[in-house]
């Protein structure tokens, strides 16, 4: 079955701003176009729609770069869409459709869509579908110039990746990488679980002892609580009786307080009424005073307005006087202007009549001048005709003379050219002699270059041997560095695990963790667990841990108040129980005499409190916990001392055995792998030292590796320099061959030039003889034209004499006319001046008349305004009289309202005295009620506090407490409570959560044992999976490598027209990691490495390799993007022939600008960019190549 790509559709992808369609047929479809037209965007689009996720492989930096970004004439688009349409009539794709459309769309917002036949799907669905048809990730569907560069510039290890993709083992490598990651996680988990199990195992033994001790404590504590509850219930009964008595007395006082309060309310109401009346009287007085003040203010304003109006009347009268004076002045000016206007009009009439007389005289003189001009024109026409004829004679004469000069010039040029040719002939002969010498020198240089090429090859071979030795040294350094790194990672991992356990309080009980992680105001008062505040030398750690047991987890606090708040917090959080050691309540228990004596016995290390180091403020705590514990070297010594002191001592050995007062012994074997609590800190410090040493060793190895890299770089540089020198020598050889060919061509060219020069000299001799005959004829014509020209000159002289006479007459007439016109113009200008003066006088008179009208209007306006001011003054006088009447009435009202106000004040003073007495008596009653209320509150608080103690301290309801009530007198209860407290104290420190903690630790230990077993099984399983993957990859890679090598050799021979090539493994013993070298032997050359070939040979070799991948894993179609760019014309032709042959089984889409490749096309599409930034297509289909 053959899957055919039938059509390509794109919209908005890169430079394809408009919807673009490309038809593809079987065989080869070529896409051509100038650089920058967007033809490579087609291969990018195909790569993208087939599932490419790395935008850099599409020559972009971010997703929106593949969406049309706009141009000077177009706005950017918001979406890019590409569709590939396949002919599925053979059902190569497992879909029940004859045509399958695969579409990918991306929006500028970043959203993507994938579709099959216009139905949305996932990218994985498309990839799975294409894989079925041989278009998966491992196929060579797209071969671009970047692929050529990648192979050329890659190292052998990097080149291996191409073979892995072709062999299809990339997915196995991903699976192996994931399995190795899981294996590493599993090993980390194994170490962590083993560490935690060791920690838990060290806690189980002391916890079992502490749990038994806690059970005895719980029994005595329960009895103590019953006694304390009974005491509390007795207190509650007494307090409730006092509350009843105080409530009765309070009710009696309350009835008297109510009566006095009623009388006080009535008195205060009357007082408030009088206060309101007083405020009303005050308001009336204020209103009257406000009105009087307002009238006074208005009167003052009217007086000011009167003064302003009187001043305005004076000013306006003065203005009227000025206007009347102006009217008289303007009238006199009007009379003067009328007189001047009459005089100017008389003068204008006289001047105009005189000018008309002169105008008539000018007309007669112009008629005589016109006749003279006519006669002049006739003679001038005759003279012009004569001059034209003379000019014709002169022109013909000049033409003949020019011809003669031209002939002389041609003769001179021919002579000059003849001399030049003779010189060139001599130079050519000299050049021929020089070229013969140059050819001999060039041949000697060619021989020297061949010897240099051979020496360069020998030097390169030596450098390659040195490089292989240095690379082997690098492998050794890398192996050693890997081992040290692994040890460093193990130490670092162990240190991090212990550090995390310290930070997470691993091994502490739930209650202790809750307190240490609490975020509360009392938290700074928690100073830490006992295990956190003491340090012990390594040799005493086991003994001290045994002596402390569960006390290692006791919390030290600043005072008992902090302990109480922490216990309340534990109850609130339900986080278990914790033993607290308040520094202000811990009593020092110094060792007794017999314990001091025992510490001096042989084999005794000392008292346990003397073996630990801690801060001075914790000294009482360590003495309290360890002051009476003796540490000895071994169990034998412990038994001897215990018998001597009648088993009254608490003794521990350095190996962790313990002898209790009374004779019991604890000991045995522990499977612990490391210390807990105390030993963890010392191990962390040790691991830090080991890690530092390994880091130093790694630094040294890194320095050695950097030195190795520098040596390798220098060697590579030398190798590169030698190769460049060889390439330079090869280039010189090529250039020298060109010089030899050019010199031979110059020799042939010069011989041909000599022959041409001889022929041209013969032609010049013949042309010179012809030119001398033409010159003789031309000289005869020149003599004839000169005679005719002299005769015609005499006739023209006669006509010019008559012309001068007529011109003199014309000048006389013209002068007379000019004089008459000047006089006429003068009279005309004088008349116009007088007419202008008259116009000015008329304008001035109109202006003065208008001014008189304006002055009369201003006078009438001022008179009207004066009349208005006088009327306003009269109105102001009337207003002032009315205001004075209102002011007298307001002053009388103010006196009456003030008298009423004084009467109200007298009544208020009497009522205030009565109200004050009632308030005093009410206050006394309320004080007594308050005292009774305080008494009730006090006893109610005692009752409530008793209930809270039952609830919070004893966690009991009243009914439950009454069930625990003991029928004993007060003294018996106190005695029993004291006895129980003594017995509980004698037990020493108790871990309340020991029982729960022991069960929890035991369950967790068993759970972790099962987890450890499961992890071991998982590790074995992962190792088996990794082994199977390695086996599968090795077999698949070897098989694929062999087939690709066969294809590579065959395709190389076809493309080069001979020669041979192969790919080989750098390290055949390391199939999974070895690099791959390419060795070739072009026709007529020896076998060599890829790097030593010329640029075109290297490119063609890589093309052969890439097509060998395609041969191993065929694809239905293949897009080839300008991979022929570096090939010369001969190689392009071979590549084109190979492509035509290969197109019988694979459909090709070729982007190229090489003519040879274009000739292989069955169909051709041209890409142009007529509009800036927008690509367009032009298509041509070739039905028959032969045609």
Automatic annotation (TrEMBL):
Function: Required for chromosome condensation and partitioning.
GO molecular function: ATP binding; ATP hydrolysis activity; DNA binding
Location(s) in or outside the cell: Cytoplasm
Short name of one Pfam family: SMC_N
Subunit-level organization: Homodimer.
Protein name: Chromosome partition protein Smc
CDD domains cross-referenced by the UniProt entry: ABC_SMC_barmotin
Segments traversing the membrane: none
A single GO cellular-component term on record: chromosome
Positions that bind ATP: 34-41
Domain SMC hinge stretches: 524-642
Comment text on domains: Contains large globular domains required for ATP hydrolysis at each terminus and a third globular domain forming a flexible hinge near the middle of the molecule. These domains are separated by coiled-coil structures.
GO biological process: chromosome condensation; chromosome segregation; DNA replication; sister chromatid cohesion
Family membership: Belongs to the SMC family.
Coiled-coil segments: 169-203, 229-389, 432-473, 684-725, 754-788, 908-935
Keywords tagged on the record: ATP-binding, Coiled coil, Cytoplasm, DNA-binding, Nucleotide-binding
């Amino acid at each position: 079955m053959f899957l055919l790509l039938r059509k390509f559709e794109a919209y908005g992808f890169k430079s394809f701003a408009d919807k673009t369609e490309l038809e593809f047929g079987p065989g080869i479809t070529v896409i051509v176009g100038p650089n920058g037209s967007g033809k490579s965007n087609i291969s990018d689009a195909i790569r993208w729609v087939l599932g490419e996720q790395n935008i850099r492989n599409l020559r972009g930096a971010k997703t929106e770069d593949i969406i049309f970004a706009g141009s000077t004439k177009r706005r950017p688009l918001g979406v890019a869409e590409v569709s590939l349409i396949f002919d599925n009539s053979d059902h190569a794709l497992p879909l029940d459709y004859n045509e399958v459309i695969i579409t990918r769309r991306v929006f500028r917002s970043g959203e993507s869509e994938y579709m099959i036949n216009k139905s949305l799907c996932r990218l994985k669905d498309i990839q799975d579908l294409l894989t079925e048809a041989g278009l998966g990730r491992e196929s060579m569907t797209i071969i671009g110039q970047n692929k050529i560069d990648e192979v050329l510039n890659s190292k052998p290890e990097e080149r291996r990746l191409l073979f892995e993709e072709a062999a299809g083992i990339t997915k196995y490598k991903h699976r192996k990488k994931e399995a190795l990651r899981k294996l590493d996680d599993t090993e980390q988990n194994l170490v962590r679980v083993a560490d935690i199990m060791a920690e838990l195992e060290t806690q189980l033994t002391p916890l079992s002892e502490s749990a038994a001790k806690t059970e005895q404590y719980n029994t005595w504590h329960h009895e103590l609580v019953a006694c304390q509850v009974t005491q509390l219930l007795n207190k509650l009964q007494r307090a409730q009786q006092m509350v009843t008595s105080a409530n009765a007395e309070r009710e009696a006082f309350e009835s008297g307080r109510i009566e006095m309060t009623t009388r006080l309310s009535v008195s205060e109401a009357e007082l408030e009424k009088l206060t309101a009346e007083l405020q009303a009287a005050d308001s009336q007085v204020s209103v009257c005073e406000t009105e009087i003040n307002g009238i006074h203010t208005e009167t003052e304003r009217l007086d000011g307005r009167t003064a302003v109006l009187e001043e305005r009347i004076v000013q306006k009268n003065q203005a009227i006087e000025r206007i009347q004076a102006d009217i008289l002045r303007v009238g006199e000016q009007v009379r003067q202007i009328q007189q001047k206007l009459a005089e100017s009009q008389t003068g204008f009439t006289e001047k105009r009549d005189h000018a008309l007389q002169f105008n008539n005289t000018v007309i007669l003189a112009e008629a005589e001048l016109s006749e003279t001009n006519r006669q002049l024109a006739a003679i001038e026409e005759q003279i012009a005709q004569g001059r034209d004829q003379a000019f014709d004679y002169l022109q013909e004469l000049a033409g003949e003379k020019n011809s003669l000069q031209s002939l002389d010039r041609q003769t001179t040029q021919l002579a000059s050219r003849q001399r030049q040719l003779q010189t060139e002939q001599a130079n050519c002969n000299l050049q021929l002699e020089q070229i013969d010498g140059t050819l001999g020198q060039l041949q000697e240089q060619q021989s020297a270059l061949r010897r240099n090429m051979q020496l360069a090859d020998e030097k390169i071979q030596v450098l390659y041997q040195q490089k292989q030795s240095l690379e082997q040294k690098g492998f050794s350094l890398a192996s050693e560095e890997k081992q040290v790194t692994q040890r460093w990672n193990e130490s670092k991992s162990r240190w991090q695990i212990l550090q995390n356990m310290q930070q997470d309080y691993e091994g502490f009980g739930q209650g202790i963790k809750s307190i240490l992680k609490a975020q509360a105001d009392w938290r700074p008062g928690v100073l830490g667990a006992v295990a956190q505040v003491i340090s012990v030398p390594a040799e005493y750690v086991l003994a001290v841990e045994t002596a402390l047991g569960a006390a290692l987890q006791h919390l030290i606090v600043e005072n008992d108040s902090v302990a109480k708040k922490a216990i309340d917090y534990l109850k609130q959080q339900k986080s278990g129980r914790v033993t607290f050691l308040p520094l202000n309540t811990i009593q020092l228990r110094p060792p007794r005499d017999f314990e001091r004596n025992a510490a001096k016995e042989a084999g005794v290390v000392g008292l346990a409190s003397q073996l630990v180091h801690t801060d001075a403020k914790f000294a009482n705590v360590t003495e309290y916990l360890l002051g009476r514990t003796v540490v000895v070297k071994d169990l034998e010594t412990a038994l001897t001392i215990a018998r001597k002191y009648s088993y009254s001592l608490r003794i521990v050995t350095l190996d962790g055995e313990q002898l209790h007062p009374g004779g019991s012994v604890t000991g045995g074997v522990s499977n612990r792998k490391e210390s807990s609590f105390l030993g963890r800190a010392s191990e962390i410090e040790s691991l830090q030292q080991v890690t530092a040493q390994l880091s130093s060793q790694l630094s040294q190895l890194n320095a050695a590796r950097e030195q190795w890299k520098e040596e390798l770089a220098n060697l590579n540089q030398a190798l590169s320099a030698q190769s460049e020198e060889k390439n330079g020598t090869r280039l010189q050889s090529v250039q020298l061959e060109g010089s030899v060919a050019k010199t031979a061509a110059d020799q042939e060219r010069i011989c041909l030039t000599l022959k041409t020069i001889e022929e041209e000299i013969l032609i010049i001799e013949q042309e010179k003889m012809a030119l001398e005959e033409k010159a003789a004829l031309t000289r005869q014509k020149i003599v004839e034209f000169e005679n005719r020209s002299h005769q015609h000159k005499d006739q023209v002289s006669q006509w010019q004499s008559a012309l001068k006479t007529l011109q003199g007459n014309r000048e006389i007439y013209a002068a007379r006319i000019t004089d008459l016109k000047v006089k006429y113009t003068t009279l005309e200008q004088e008349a116009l001046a007088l007419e202008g003066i008259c116009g000015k006088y008329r304008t001035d008179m109109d202006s003065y008349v208008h001014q008189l009208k304006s002055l009369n209007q201003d006078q009438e306006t001022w008179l009207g305004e004066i009349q208005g001011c006088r009327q306003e003054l009269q109105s102001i006088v009337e207003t002032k009289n009315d205001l004075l009447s209102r002011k007298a009435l307001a002053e009388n009202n103010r006196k009456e309202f003030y008298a009423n106000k004084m009467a109200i004040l007298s009544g208020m003073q009497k009522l205030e005295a009565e109200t004050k007495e009632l308030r005093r008596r009410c206050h006394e009653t309320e004080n007594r009620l308050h005292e009774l209320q305080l008494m009730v509150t006090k006893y109610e608080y005692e009752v409530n506090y008793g209930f809270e103690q039952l609830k919070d301290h004893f966690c009991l309801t009243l009914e439950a407490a009454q069930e625990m009530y003991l029928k004993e007198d007060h003294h018996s209860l106190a005695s029993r409570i004291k006895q129980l407290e003594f017995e509980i104290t004698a037990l020493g420190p108790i871990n309340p959560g020991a029982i729960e903690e022991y069960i929890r630790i035991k369950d967790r230990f068993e759970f972790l044992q099962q987890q450890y077993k499961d992890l071991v099984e998982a590790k074995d399983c992962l190792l088996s999976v990794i082994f199977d993957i390695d086996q599968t990859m090795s077999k698949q890679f070897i098989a694929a490598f062999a087939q690709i090598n066969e294809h590579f050799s065959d395709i190389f021979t076809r493309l080069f027209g001979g020669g041979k090539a192969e790919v080989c493994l750098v390290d055949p013993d390391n199939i999974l990691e070895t690099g791959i070298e390419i060795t070739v032997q072009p026709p007529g050359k020896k076998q060599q490495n890829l790097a030593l070939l010329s640029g075109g040979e290297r490119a063609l070799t890589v093309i052969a390799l890439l097509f060998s991948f395609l041969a191993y894993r065929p694809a239905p179609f293949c897009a080839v993007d300008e991979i022929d760019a570096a090939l010369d014309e001969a190689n392009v032709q071979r590549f084109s022939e190979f492509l035509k042959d290969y197109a019988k089984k694979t459909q090709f889409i070729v982007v190229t600008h090489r003519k040879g490749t274009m000739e292989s096309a069955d169909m051709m599409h041209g890409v142009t960019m007529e509009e800036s930034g927008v690509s367009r297509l032009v298509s041509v289909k070739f039905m028959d190549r032969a045609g």
